[in-house]
Amino acid sequence: VVNFLQSMREQPGMTSSDRLLAVTTLSFDIAVLELLLPLSTGATVLLAQRDDVVDGRALRSLLDRHAATTMQATPSTWRMLIDAGWSGHAGFKALVGGEPLPVDLATQLTETCGSVWNMYGPTETTVWSSCGPVRDPQAGIDIGRPIANTRFDVVDAQMRLLPVGAVGELLIAGEGVTLGYLDRPELTADRFVADPLGPPGALRYRTGD
Q1: Which of 39, 50, 68, 91 has the most C-beta neighbours closer than 10 Å?
Q2: Whether this model's pTM surpasses 0.90
């Protein structure tokens, strides 16, 4: 978590002048960013109520009334917000993750926000493992680059590294890889495999992606 927060401070970035509207339930791991990143940078956390999060107009009102500068949400929530007439502003940073980012939504966000970041990562590797700015959605949307102290490998069915451009399974290595599943040793052994490029005992997570 410390590695994750330190990396997020740099990219997508947060400073003490930011005001983040937190909309995620605590049962969803991305809430770690919404609550701890602002506190670690001196930024302001604005806590949205459950009723506001499911109502696009109420969410729009919160963002505007409290002069929020950033929000992290799934594409579904961003679409609901835009459908409610939210127009964004040049100083606003939109963090999008948890679901694939559609091109049409990305286009709408880039036209109304100062910056849009696509976030990717499974819970097993501690919230987000990569991020990247979305500048030209029509040219394609990728998952960005691995965060600090994180490595991505693409492998074939025999776990051999594949060259650039080849299709395979994404494995994630580095500081974010967790210890496995509680009381599920067989599942842990299947999804968490040895990292030949890491220190002794290091693991990679098989994302299935």
Answers
A1: 68
A2: yes
Distance CA 89, CA 171 (A): 37
Helix, strand, coil proportions of the chain in percent (round to 5)?
Answer: 35, 25, 45
* d(C-alpha 189, C-alpha 174), whole Å: 17
- C-alpha 192/C-alpha 177 separation (Å) is 9
Amino acid at 198: G
Contacts of 111 (CB under 8 A, 6+ apart): none
Amino acid (1-letter code) at residue 72 = Q
Q: Mean pLDDT throughout 183-190? A: 97
pLDDT-based confidence at 153, cuts 50/70/90?
very high
* Measured distance CA(66)–CA(47) in Å, rounded: 11
Q: Is 117 helix (H, G, I), strand (E, B) or coil?
A: strand
Q: Rg of the chain's alpha carbons, rounded to an integer?
A: 18
CA 114 – CA 56 distance, rounded (Å):
20
